[in-house]
Amino acid sequence: MFFSMAKSRILAPWVGKEEKSAIYHCVSRVVERRFHFKQQEKEHFVKLMRLYEAFCGVRVLSYCIMSNHFHLLLEVPPRPQQDLTDEELLSRVALIHSPDSVAMLRAQLEALSAEGITDEGRKADAALREKYFARMWDLGQFMKVL
Fold it and tell me: Which of 41, 67, 113, 120 could bridge across to 35 with cysteines, CB 3.0–4.6 Å?
Protein backbone atom coordinates (compact mmCIF):
# COMPACT_ATOMS: atom_id res chain seq x y z
CA MET A 1 0.00 0.00 0.00
CA PHE A 2 1.12 3.51 -0.74
CA PHE A 3 0.40 6.33 1.67
CA SER A 4 1.00 9.92 0.76
CA MET A 5 1.40 12.72 3.24
CA ALA A 6 -0.99 15.61 2.96
CA LYS A 7 0.50 18.73 1.45
CA SER A 8 1.60 21.29 3.98
CA ARG A 9 -0.72 24.22 4.37
CA ILE A 10 0.50 27.74 3.92
CA LEU A 11 -0.64 30.81 5.79
CA ALA A 12 -0.62 34.11 3.98
CA PRO A 13 2.94 35.48 4.13
CA TRP A 14 1.85 38.71 5.82
CA VAL A 15 -0.01 37.07 8.73
CA GLY A 16 1.42 38.48 11.93
CA LYS A 17 3.30 41.22 10.04
CA GLU A 18 0.58 43.38 8.50
CA GLU A 19 -2.88 44.39 9.61
CA LYS A 20 -4.92 42.93 6.78
CA SER A 21 -7.18 39.93 6.35
CA ALA A 22 -6.19 36.72 4.63
CA ILE A 23 -8.48 34.51 2.55
CA TYR A 24 -8.19 30.72 2.58
CA HIS A 25 -9.83 27.80 0.82
CA CYS A 26 -10.14 24.99 3.36
CA VAL A 27 -11.23 21.40 2.80
CA SER A 28 -11.90 18.73 5.38
CA ARG A 29 -12.99 15.15 4.86
CA VAL A 30 -14.99 12.79 7.04
CA VAL A 31 -12.97 9.97 8.63
CA GLU A 32 -12.43 7.12 6.16
CA ARG A 33 -14.32 9.25 3.61
CA ARG A 34 -17.61 7.87 4.90
CA PHE A 35 -20.80 9.45 3.61
CA HIS A 36 -22.13 10.99 6.83
CA PHE A 37 -23.45 14.37 5.70
CA LYS A 38 -27.09 13.94 4.86
CA GLN A 39 -29.55 16.87 4.84
CA GLN A 40 -30.06 17.02 8.61
CA GLU A 41 -26.31 16.79 9.32
CA LYS A 42 -25.58 19.50 6.74
CA GLU A 43 -28.11 21.85 8.36
CA HIS A 44 -26.65 21.21 11.81
CA PHE A 45 -23.12 21.74 10.48
CA VAL A 46 -24.11 25.12 9.01
CA LYS A 47 -25.70 26.16 12.31
CA LEU A 48 -22.53 25.27 14.24
CA MET A 49 -20.33 26.88 11.60
CA ARG A 50 -22.25 30.17 11.86
CA LEU A 51 -22.14 30.19 15.67
CA TYR A 52 -18.42 29.57 15.75
CA GLU A 53 -17.90 32.09 12.93
CA ALA A 54 -19.53 34.76 15.11
CA PHE A 55 -17.55 33.67 18.17
CA CYS A 56 -14.10 33.78 16.65
CA GLY A 57 -14.46 36.59 14.14
CA VAL A 58 -13.57 34.50 11.09
CA ARG A 59 -15.86 35.25 8.15
CA VAL A 60 -17.26 32.43 6.01
CA LEU A 61 -17.42 33.88 2.50
CA SER A 62 -18.72 30.71 0.86
CA TYR A 63 -19.12 27.04 1.63
CA CYS A 64 -20.08 23.76 0.03
CA ILE A 65 -20.97 20.69 2.07
CA MET A 66 -20.77 17.39 0.24
CA SER A 67 -21.74 13.99 1.62
CA ASN A 68 -18.22 13.16 2.86
CA HIS A 69 -16.34 16.48 2.92
CA PHE A 70 -16.75 20.23 2.91
CA HIS A 71 -15.14 23.28 1.35
CA LEU A 72 -14.96 26.68 3.03
CA LEU A 73 -13.76 30.01 1.73
CA LEU A 74 -12.73 31.94 4.83
CA GLU A 75 -11.60 35.47 5.54
CA VAL A 76 -9.41 35.60 8.63
CA PRO A 77 -8.86 39.11 9.96
CA PRO A 78 -5.85 39.96 12.10
CA ARG A 79 -6.33 40.17 15.84
CA PRO A 80 -7.44 43.72 16.68
CA GLN A 81 -4.96 45.98 18.45
CA GLN A 82 -7.47 46.56 21.25
CA ASP A 83 -8.98 43.57 23.03
CA LEU A 84 -12.73 43.11 23.32
CA THR A 85 -14.60 44.67 26.22
CA ASP A 86 -16.06 42.40 28.88
CA GLU A 87 -19.53 42.67 27.31
CA GLU A 88 -18.23 41.92 23.80
CA LEU A 89 -16.34 38.90 25.09
CA LEU A 90 -19.33 37.63 27.07
CA SER A 91 -21.70 38.01 24.12
CA ARG A 92 -19.37 35.98 21.91
CA VAL A 93 -18.84 33.32 24.56
CA ALA A 94 -22.64 33.06 24.96
CA LEU A 95 -22.84 31.85 21.36
CA ILE A 96 -20.95 28.63 22.07
CA HIS A 97 -21.23 28.05 25.84
CA SER A 98 -24.08 27.48 28.27
CA PRO A 99 -25.67 30.33 30.25
CA ASP A 100 -24.09 28.88 33.42
CA SER A 101 -20.62 29.03 31.85
CA VAL A 102 -21.20 32.62 30.73
CA ALA A 103 -22.40 33.61 34.23
CA MET A 104 -19.30 32.01 35.75
CA LEU A 105 -17.04 33.88 33.30
CA ARG A 106 -18.87 37.14 34.06
CA ALA A 107 -18.29 36.63 37.80
CA GLN A 108 -14.60 35.86 37.21
CA LEU A 109 -14.13 38.96 35.05
CA GLU A 110 -15.89 41.16 37.61
CA ALA A 111 -13.80 39.77 40.47
CA LEU A 112 -10.57 40.26 38.55
CA SER A 113 -11.39 43.84 37.53
CA ALA A 114 -12.43 45.02 41.00
CA GLU A 115 -10.77 48.09 42.48
CA GLY A 116 -7.54 47.49 44.34
CA ILE A 117 -6.51 44.67 42.04
CA THR A 118 -2.95 43.44 42.47
CA ASP A 119 -0.35 42.73 39.79
CA GLU A 120 -1.10 39.06 40.29
CA GLY A 121 -4.80 39.77 39.72
CA ARG A 122 -4.04 41.69 36.52
CA LYS A 123 -1.98 38.74 35.28
CA ALA A 124 -4.85 36.36 36.10
CA ASP A 125 -7.29 38.65 34.27
CA ALA A 126 -5.02 38.75 31.19
CA ALA A 127 -4.59 34.95 31.28
CA LEU A 128 -8.35 34.38 31.53
CA ARG A 129 -9.04 36.68 28.58
CA GLU A 130 -6.24 35.13 26.52
CA LYS A 131 -7.81 31.69 27.03
CA TYR A 132 -10.69 32.94 24.83
CA PHE A 133 -8.80 35.35 22.58
CA ALA A 134 -6.41 32.57 21.54
CA ARG A 135 -9.39 30.87 19.86
CA MET A 136 -10.41 33.99 17.93
CA TRP A 137 -9.08 35.38 14.65
CA ASP A 138 -7.24 32.10 14.02
CA LEU A 139 -7.69 29.78 11.04
CA GLY A 140 -6.34 26.68 12.79
CA GLN A 141 -8.54 27.08 15.85
CA PHE A 142 -11.63 27.69 13.73
CA MET A 143 -11.04 24.57 11.64
CA LYS A 144 -10.07 22.46 14.65
CA VAL A 145 -13.35 23.15 16.44
CA LEU A 146 -15.48 22.95 13.31
Answer: 67
Buried b (16+ CB within 10 A) or exposed e, 105-116: bbeebeebeeee
Helix-strand-coil percent breakdown of the chain, rounded to 5?
Answer: 45, 15, 40
Q: Is the separation of the CB atoms in 119 and 29 below 8 Å?
A: no
| Contact indicator for 25, 106 with CB cutoff of 8 Å | no
pTM value? 0.78
In angstroms, the CA 125 to CA 118 distance is 10
pLDDT tens digits along 57-113: 999 999 999 999 999 999 999 999 888 999 999 999 999 999 999 999 999 998 887
Can you tell me the distance from the alpha carbon of 19 to that of 29, in angstroms, rounded to the nearest whole number? 31
- Judged on CB neighbours under 10 Å (0-12, 13-18, 19+), 56 is buried
In this model, does residue 1 exceed pLDDT 70? no
